[in-house]
UniProtKB/TrEMBL annotation:
Belongs to the thioredoxin family. DsbA subfamily. This is Thioredoxin domain-containing protein. Residues 1-35, 70-117 are annotated as: Disordered. Gene3D superfamilies: Glutaredoxin (3.40.30.10). The chain crosses the membrane at residues 43-63. SUPFAM superfamilies: Thioredoxin-like. Residues 89-248 form the Thioredoxin domain. GO terms for molecular function: oxidoreductase activity. Residues 1-31 have a biased composition (Low complexity). InterPro entries: Thioredoxin-like_fold, Thioredoxin-like_sf, Thioredoxin_domain. It comes from Microbacterium mitrae.
Length: 291
């Protein structure tokens, strides 16, 4: 794939999530993944540092080797459109039972920064959700346009969920450019608005081009106050390096398909129907409140 990260295999990933309802991981898989990520708070604090990446590599094997749902999105599981479960035959999104002796997986890997421009909601919310997204992914756009507004209204706005976004550039240089633009908007307090505008303009299928003039037009529509500064930030090497670091971090963790979600103590991939998110969020909130 010419403009894609080879290890990610994203084209097959998002193609196979078009209509499929995939299962979340089993308890045994969560245990394995949790062992892997126990020390990853340090990784997130120094995200982008080479030492952090070496730490991740050293402590465990990637997520894609733990959760068959990830490999299914990468074209190694059920075919596109299949509703067959890939983990234990479950297709209803049931969340596994959490280990009461450890914090939920999402809390272990969360940035947990009260000033995080790429996060939504109360940092002290009982449930943490993390999404990995590529701004050129059509199924990321589908989730953002159709499902995310409901989740924000019903969970984030009510103080129940802290929602963190992590960008990846699986689809080449234009993905990097779009992620840099979103971060540049975030520098001016307009990440959420830019995120919404960009995905609202996405086509029904395919990976849209992200030329500079389009990214600037998105900023104007999103209400970014200083367009001159935004335009200058599009060339900021620090922002490009941050996107590269976020992508490398995702790949080290084994995230090979987007959108990818960690919800409390469980994780899954794909533009799932709203019913799946309701079920998983409800169950993980109950576990969080019981702690």
């Amino acid at each position: 794939m010419t403009n894609e990260t080879p290890a990610a295999q994203p084209d097959a990933a998002d193609a196979s999530t078009a209509e499929a309802v995939e299962s979340v991981n089993t308890p045994s898989e969560t245990e394995t993944l949790t062992r892997k990520l126990r020390r990853s708070r340090t990784l997130n604090i120094v995200l982008g540092a080479a030492a952090a990446f070496l730490l991740v590599v050293a402590i465990a094997q990637p997520l894609s080797q733990q959760n068959p749902a990830v490999n299914a999105d990468a074209g190694k599981g059920p075919s596109a459109g299949s509703t067959e479960g890939v983990t234990g035959g479950a297709t209803d999104g049931a969340a596994p039972e959490a280990d009461p002796n450890r914090p939920p997986l999402a809390e272990q890997i969360a940035r947990a920064d009260p000033n995080d421009p790429m996060a939504y909601g109360d940092i002290d919310a009982p449930l943490t959700v993390i999404e990995w997204t590529d701004y050129r992914c059509p199924f990321c756009a589908k989730f953002t346009n159709d499902t995310m507004p409901v989740l924000l209204e019903e969970y984030v706005d009510k103080g129940l969920v802290r929602y963190e976004v992590r960008d990846v550039s699986f689809f080449g240089d234009d993905s990097t450019a779009a992620a840099v633009a979103a971060r540049a908007a975030g520098n001016q307090g307009k990440f959420a608005e830019y995120f919404e505008v960009l995905y609202a303009a996405a086509p029904q299928s395919g990976h849209p081009d992200m030329p500079r003039e389009k990214l600037i037009a998105f900023a104007e529509e999103a209400g970014v106050p200083d367009i001159a500064q935004f335009t200058a930030d599009l060339d900021d090497p620090a922002l490009a390096e941050a996107v590269a670091a976020s992508t490398a971090d995702a790949q080290q963790l084994g995230v090979t398909a987007v959108p990818f979600f960690v919800v409390g103590g469980t994780y899954f991939s794909g533009a799932q129907p709203i019913e799946t998110f309701h079920k998983v969020f409800t169950e993980q909130l109950e576990l969080a409140k019981a702690e």
